[in-house]
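User: Okay, second chain of the day. Same drill as before: sequence in, C-alpha cells out.
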Amino acid sequence: MTGHIVPGAGNRFLVRLSRERLLGLPLLRAEVPGKSLTPRRVRRTARALRKAGVVRVLAPEEFPLWNEVLAQGLRPVETGELCRALAVPVTLAALAGDGVPLRQASVTLQGDRVTRALRAAAMELCPQVRQLLVEVPAGGEELQRELSREFGLPVVEGGPERQTHLTLCFSPSGGAGRGRIADLSGETPALAEYRFSLREGALPGDAAALPLLSALWVSGRLERSDIAVSPHFHT
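Assistant: Same drill. C-alpha cells below.
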C-alpha cells in the first residue's frame, strides 16, 4: 500500500495511522505529530509507515523534509512513466505558453533509443507540428522512415545546427537540448514549469498533484485524457 504523509494537528508524540481513500485510491495516512513539521517528527512518521510495510509515499506539494523520509527507506511515488505518457499534452502546454502556433512549431524528440513512449509521442505529434526533429541514436532512422511513410511528411534528423522551439528528453540529455527543454527522463522528472490537474473535478489539497495523478493512473483509475497540463512559466 502507498503511504500518505500529512501535517498533524494533535498529540505531538503520537503518529496517527489510518486508512483512507483519495479518489478511490487506498492509502495509509500518517499524520505527523504536533502542529509543525520538524525533522525528528517526520522521521518518526516515516519510520511508522515503513514498519507498516509502506515503500512509496505521497506528501503535500513542496514538502520540505524529503531527506528525512528517504533516510527511513521510503521513496516518493514515481511519476516518470506518466510524464512520458503525457509528452504530447506537455508539448501543447509548452507551445501555448510560449505563444507558438502548432503549425509553426519545431519540436525535437531526444533519447538514447526509441521507446514505446517516444514512438507514441512521435506518431501523435508528427501530423500536428510544422517540423519534428528526431535525435535518437538507436532506432531513430527507422522511426523517421516510419513517420514519413505514415504521414507523407519529411521527419528531419536533429542536430546542434537545427533550431527548435521545444526539446522533449526521454533520457538524460546532459544539457544538449535546445529551445525550451522538458526533461521527461528518470523516475521523478522535474517539471516545475507545468501544472497537472484533473480535467473535471478537483484534487485534494494535501497531496502533491503529479504523484497523486501518477498513482491513480498506474492503478487504472484515470486515463491520460482525464489529466490536464497547463504552463506555469516564470517571466
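The chain has a mean pLDDT of 92.

User: Thanks, on to the next one.
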